[in-house]
Structure formats: structure tokens, C-alpha cells
Amino acid sequence: MSILVVGLGVIGTTYGYLFQKAGHHVEHLVRESSTSASVSSLEVEILDGRRDPKGSLSQDQYTVHHRGHTSYDLIVVSVPQGRIAEAMAALRTGGIEGPVLLFCGFWGEREELDRLMAGRAVLLGYPVAGGRITRERLTCCVFDHVMLERRDKARFPGYEGVEALFGSCGIGLEHPHDMLEWIWLHMAINAGVGAVAAMHGDVEDTTRAAEQIMGSSRMLAQVVRAIRETSRIVASRGVDLRRYHGELLVYRLPTVVSAPLMKRMFARNLLTQRIMTLHGNTADLLFVCRTVYEQGRTNGLSAPIFYKSYEEARSKAARHDQHLPGMGHERKETT
């Protein structure tokens, strides 16, 4: 399969590496002005959960092929929500054709998504991986499955090819009732976790903040309460949360039960620990929190724990930026 990954970000590069290892041809579309424009290879350290649920650690090298064609079997777009329009514009400007796997968060309605795609075939999915890229080194972890839009709901002629692509990498597929609603709910859960972690921890040291919250039953109890609130914000958009019982079960248990369960899970599951501690993009985390926060305020939802957590995290981030040379009073929350 011929695959184009937009950018050289963590998620697209992690799966690009897996696709390349499985024998597919992978290229990256990188802006000429980007610091990654000259990158030709990356050292890879991967905690791989595809065959070992505890994760097996390995080192490897990833050859980065930059875009050399104008037509692909699949284009993987995995960028922060605020940059989806920019990514699609880059494809149009470059005259690049091919169906899109939108592999990231998207808070908009289906109509907005259709406008962004401008007639291009799109399949919604969500990765189950994480990591960071520093200089020319990718440190990542990957689970044994990804989330993918159901075949009967997808308007995507190459669906079987995407199934085969992930199957060739040893990655299974899970299909929620509605992929777009599931993405909203996942973003809301991330917002609850991120806001509480940022309020209690250092907004510029996300690794330490994640470690702190994973080891504290008191903080995890606050996370559970915040997620109950953010999930109600999703429900206010017309989503029937009963269809996502499995995703929300742990957060519906009494906090005296759910918080210790979560703490034990983090302590025992190295993959989950790593995916929490490796997500180091503060601006992206705050952008997700802000998106859910603004929706809740607009819809008139009561969410005191989440609102207070986000407002304190936002103020803390703004104070930090004020002390950096050349920074103004406003923090840019998109990346």
C-alpha cells in the first residue's frame, strides 16, 4: 500500500514506522519551513504491546521518505484539531490525491467535517498509541488495537484496504457505535484528566504531572468527578451515553472504588503509564480542555470541578508564559 502521512508528528510517525515495517511504502508531507524538513531517519524506541500485553521494549531505525508523489492509496492525517483545516489545505495546494484516514480528535459536527474534506473520501479512526519526538529520536508506545469507524457507517470505498493495512501490522480494530461521538467522549475524558493534572502539577512538566496524578487516589477521585462532568457535556450535544457504557463504567463507580482501581491499573500496566507520561504537548492538552470547557459553558452545563480545574490550569499556564522572554499575556493553545 502507498501511504502518505501528513507531517512528522508522534502518532503519524509511530504508525508510519509500523506500516513500513510491514512492507508498505510510507512517505511524509513536511512543510519546507519545518525543522523536520531535513530529517531522513529517526532512532526509534518503542514499547510494543501488540503481542505482549505488558509491552516489549525494542530499538530500531525508521527511514523517513519525504513526499515524492501526488496520489496515494491512503493519506493519514493525525494532527491537533486546530490544524485539520491547515493539513487539508496543504494537500489541496500540493495537488495530492487520495482518501483520508482522519486519525485524531475532532470536536466538530459531521457537516463541518464534510466541509473540511471538500468531497474527499474520509474514514474516522483514533490511535491507541503515544510518545514524543526529540531531535531525531522517536520514543513511543503502541497498543494492540485502534478505533475505527464501523463499515456500515463509513462512506469509504477503500475500507477493506484499511482493515488489511492494520491487520498486516498485527493491530486489531475496535468499532464503537458511532466513531464521531466516541471521539467527542474520548476528548472529554482527556479534558477531565488533563485539567486536573495541570491544576495540581507543573503545566510545563507533563511527565511529572502525570506521575503525580497516577500515584494519588485523592487526585484520581477528582479526575473521576471531572470526567463525570465532561461526559455530561458530551451528552448535552445529543449523545446517548448508554451506548458507551464500557468506556464510562469505571467513572460511574463510587470514587472510593474507582480511584483505587485506577491507581492499581496505572501501577500494573506499563503501557498505560508510558502513554500518560510521554504525552508532553501542553498546548495540545490545554486546547482539548478549552474546547470541552467552551462547549459546556455554551450549553449551560454545571461542571464546577472541571471548570475550576481548567481555569486554574489556564491561569497557571498564562503566568508561566509571562515569565518567558518574548512571551505576551496570552497563551497560544493550538499547535
Brief rundown of the structure:
With 335 residues, this protein is α/β, with parallel strands linked by helices. Helix content is 47%, strand content 17%.
Give the topology, please:
Elements: E1 2-6, H1 10-21, E2 25-29, E3 41-48, E4 56-63, E5 74-77, H2 84-93, E6 100-102, H3 110-117, E7 122-126, E8 129-134, E9 137-142, E10 145-148, H4 159-168, E11 172-174, H5 179-200, H6 206-214, H7 217-235, H8 245-252, H9 255-268, H10 270-278, H11 282-298, H12 304-322
Parallel strand pairs: 1-2, 1-5, 3-9, 5-6, 6-7, 10-11
Antiparallel strand pairs: 3-4, 7-10, 8-9
Helix pairs in contact: 5-6, 5-7, 5-11, 5-12, 6-10, 7-8, 7-9, 11-12
Key descriptive features of the protein:
single chain; 335 residues; alpha/beta; 7-stranded mixed sheet; 4-stranded mixed sheet; 12 helices; 11 strands; 17% strand; disordered C terminus
